[in-house]
Specification:
The protein has 67 residues and is mainly beta. The chain has one domain. Helix content is 0%, strand content 45%. It is built from no helices and seven strands. The strands form two sheets. Strands 1-7-6-5 form a four-stranded antiparallel beta sheet, with no helix packed on it. It has a three-stranded antiparallel beta sheet with strand order 2-3-4, with no helix packed on it.
Length: 67
């Protein structure tokens, strides 16, 4: 399983506050993950083959997608 870390301004996703937007590498569906609502990650709502995660606090917050 591969992991891609998302940084603000990336073309494949975006991180803003405790929310991140990801583009699924399999089906290209764009979906949003909230650190509060999806504490264990959120699978792609279209194909379910990738999972987006947001963790950490402040400057140590990071967003990543596993596929």
């Amino acid at each position: 399983m591969q992991t891609k870390i998302i940084k603000p301004g990336d073309l494949e996703g975006d991180l803003f506050g405790n929310n991140a937007a990801f583009a699924c590498p399999y089906c290209s569906k764009v979906f949003i993950v909230s650190q509060f609502l999806n504490s264990k990650g959120r699978p792609c709502p279209k194909c379910g083959r990738s999972t987006g995660h947001v963790e950490g606090k402040g400057e140590n917050r990071r967003a990543y997608i596993r596929f």
